[in-house]
Write a structure and sequence with these properties.
273 residues, 5-stranded mixed β-sheet, 12% strand, disordered C terminus, 7 helices, 60s Ribosomal Protein L30, Chain: A
């Protein structure tokens, strides 16, 4: 007699796996945080040097030292002084710092740094549409502010005195009474002084502020050339800091003026820089 086998039927129940929990949320949060950090780094790489230093100062000391960056509160100065022998070194350091400003490639043709017998001369020259100052305005624009702040931070490390000069061109204009190139050149030099003293220069570091109007053009053959409109910063040699060369003659000069007063002399016809 044949044995009959028992048929066993196995039924498998289909269903969802167990709950995965919140691990994926943690991974997603880490991914978003890393992505945000990447964007912040990319943004910082394209900001100006003053902003980078301000952020760096905050993270070094959130309690308050970071707030001193860009203020007129001075820390201990480096033991560095500029003489005729090492003025070229200062020139290189300034050029390196200036290269970090926004849109440097567009501005570099309007910045000239030269070593002269009176010291290191830094010229910020205007274009036809205005580079560091808007046309007819006494206060620097965004590009002018950033550049002057950068220069002030570097020069504020030195004990050397500084002279600031304002120059305009001879382009005439009408419609503005009792305000000429004399007033404008002096106002621009004084506005540069105020900004630089707020961002690096000490209160006693500026020896002279002078407005020359259109009396000392860079291009004498074309006195209306835009490059005649400029701000000149002269870092004086250390041995001259007590009595800058020519200071005694400046008060009697028909062109120069000290301490922010406009130069005496024959008033030019009204003109527009």
């Amino acid at each position: 007699m044949a044995a009959t086998g028992q048929i066993i039927v196995i039924k498998r129940k289909s269903g969802h796996a167990g709950h995965h929990g919140g691990a994926w949320k943690v991974a997603y949060a880490d991914f978003v945080t890393a992505l945000m950090a990447l964007f912040i780094v990319l943004w910082l790489m394209n900001t100006s040097k003053p902003i980078q230093e301000a952020i760096s100062g905050y993270f070094k000391d959130p309690a308050g030292n970071g707030k001193l960056t860009g203020s007129n509160q001075q820390g201990p100065k480096e033991q560095l002084s500029v003489t005729k022998e090492n003025m070229a070194k200062l020139k290189q350091e300034l050029e390196k710092a200036i290269q970090q400003i926004t849109d440097f490639d567009k501005l570099k043709s309007h910045i000239e740094i030269t070593v002269t017998p009176e010291g290191l001369r830094i010229e910020l020259m205007e274009s036809e549409k205005g580079t560091f100052f808007d046309s007819g305005r006494p206060d620097p624009n965004g590009s002018g502010r950033e550049l002057l702040m950068t220069i002030a931070e570097e020069l504020g490390k030195l004990p050397n005195k500084l002279s600031i000069e304002g120059h305009t061109d001879s382009q005439p204009y009408s419609g503005v009474a009792n305000y000429t190139n004399w007033e404008l050149s002096t106002d621009r030099a004084n506005a540069s002084r105020r900004l630089m003293q707020q961002h690096g220069l000490s209160d006693d570091q500026v020896a002279q502020v002078r407005g020359f109007a259109d009396q000392q053009p860079r291009k004498g053959k074309d006195r209306t050339d835009p490059s005649n409109r400029r701000i000149s910063l002269i870092v004086q040699y250390l041995e001259k800091q007590g009595a800058p060369a020519g200071a005694a003659d400046t008060a009697n000069s028909p062109q120069g003026a000290a301490s922010g007063e406009q130069a005496a002399g024959p008033a030019p016809s009204e003109s527009k820089p």
